[in-house]
Design goal:
Distance between the termini: 51 Å
Helix content: 25-40%
Bound molecules: zinc ion
Number of strands: 16
Shape: elongated
Number of helices: 12
Structural class: alpha+beta
Order of helices and strands: HHHHEHHEEEEEEHEEHEHEHEEEHEHE
Mean pLDDT: 94
Largest sheet: 10 strands, mixed
Low-confidence stretches: none
């Protein structure tokens, strides 16, 4: 059907504003707003039929009930709703009153169009309010996890601004032993700190088994600087509570909910955290990261480099030790789930590769062993043999008992590529 015939039939239904008229043919002529399309159609129709030109006040439109006059007002309300929270990207969603949806369907039927012809009211509203929000705040629309999601509910006369989380990536070193990575709630009181009316004996009433954690040394500082409501620590795996994390550190992401500030100076944040952690924990390489970085640090396969202090129950000579680590290097190790790991986990044998192994004898009963291996390799068991459950092992190859007395992690590096892929950063 000719667009002027569509316009003529639509105009006969009663007062239809320029935007609602233009939306019927929104798929025509890229580069015009719907209001411009509608105005042009009305003008052309008047000329064709040689009638007097009578504009329609948007407020009188029976289709949108005047809502198409409200783009500016809703944009201002949206900006008010987000308050002083900083954002760079946003998206606008609109809940259309059912009556307007019915009007839209009726107009299309009367104009002889398909029910889904042109563009729905809702998408025009989202776009027109969105453009104005962008102009008012100098920010950009994003459909992929924007910093702020605005929801306009026309029937309820309300606008909601949901401020999405922001993320900081970095690497941490843990320089004191006996610090867990994250808060460790007391199992006796489930973290409540109480047993009935009394303080919990097991944790001294704190609700936690350890006073400190890497999370406690880092996340509250980030939460404070970004002025959020909550902060969560996500690590790329975790070392044992009694193991140090040294060298290049372990990747982590701290997620801050409802931040008021996003563009923080990460160098300064790094100094603030390191001052707060006072030598127990150090962070480096802090950068602003995307939402996807959380999954990246949790799921990306990583190799680990360890340094173990090992004690033998019989004398070991340097040549035998060198020979044993040579045989471990490049070997695939079979490990039955160690008892210490998880009693509930079904026993299974896993295979993990040792990429590199070196050792130095400190005296005839003690050695320092460095192992670089695939993620998931159990190092204490690789050394001790775990009573035959790990094969081969250093103890087995030397035919002595061997125990790890101290274990440090020196590096956690992505297997296929580094964790630090630029696609996961925002700065
Ligand atoms: Zn209208
Ligand atoms: Zn407790």
């Amino acid at each position: 059907m000719d667009v002027l015939d569509v316009a003529a039939r639509a105009a006969e239904t009663g007062p239809v504003c320029d935007a609602c008229l233009g939306r019927l043919v929104a798929d025509r002529s890229f580069g015009l707003s719907n209001a411009e399309r509608g105005s042009a159609l009305r003008t052309a129709l008047t000329l064709r039929d040689d009638e007097d030109y009578e504009p329609v006040e948007t407020a009188d439109c029976w289709v949108c009930e005047g809502r198409c006059t409200e783009f500016d007002a809703w944009a201002e309300r949206a900006v008010d709703a987000v308050g002083d929270a900083e954002f760079e990207t946003y998206n606008v969603g609109t809940r259309t009153p059912p009556l307007i949806e019915e009007n839209e369907a009726l107009l299309r039927e009367d104009a002889g169009l398909d029910a889904d012809a042109g563009e729905p009211f809702k998408s025009e509203f989202n776009r027109e309010v969105g453009k104005r929000v962008g102009r008012l705040t100098d920010t950009e629309v994003s459909f992929d996890r924007p910093d702020v999601q605005f929801t306009i509910d026309l029937a309820e006369d309300a606008v909601d601004a949901k401020v999405n989380s922001t993320f900081v990536y970095g690497r941490y070193r843990k320089l004191d032993r006996d610090i867990p990575q994250t808060e460790w709630p007391c199992r006796e009181c489930d973290g409540s700190g109480r047993q009935g009316a009394d303080p919990c004996d097991h944790c001294g009433g704190s609700g936690y088994l350890y006073d400190d954690s890497v999370e406690e040394y880092t996340a509250p500082v980030v939460e404070d600087v970004m002025d959020g409501t909550e902060a969560t620590f996500h690590g790329a795996g975790r070392e044992d509570v009694d193991a140090l994390m040294l060298g290049t550190g372990r990747p982590f992401v701290i997620e801050v909910e409802e931040p008021h500030r996003r563009r923080v100076d990460t160098d300064r944040l790094q100094s603030d955290i390191n001052a707060f952690a006072d030598g127990a924990v150090e962070v480096e390489g802090l950068r602003l990261a995307t939402y996807d970085m959380v999954e990246r640090v949790k799921e990306h396969d990583a190799s680990k480099r360890y340094r173990a202090q090992v004690a033998f129950d019989a004398d070991v000579d340097a040549d035998a030790l060198a020979d044993a680590v040579d045989r471990l290097e490049g070997e695939t190790i079979e490990q039955y789930t160690p008892n210490r790991v998880d009693h509930r986990r079904a026993g299974l044998t896993r295979e993990r590769d040792v990429y590199e192994a070196t050792a130095e004898l400190d005296d005839s009963r003690h050695a320092t062993v460095e192992i670089r291996g695939a993620g998931g390799l159990y190092i204490k068991e690789l050394i001790s043999g775990d009573q035959g459950r790990t094969e081969p092992s250093l103890a087995g190859l030397l035919d002595v008992d061997a125990d790890v007395t101290a274990l440090d992690v020196l590096a956690v590096e992505g297997e296929s590529e580094p964790f630090e892929d630029e696609a996961f950063f925002r700065d």
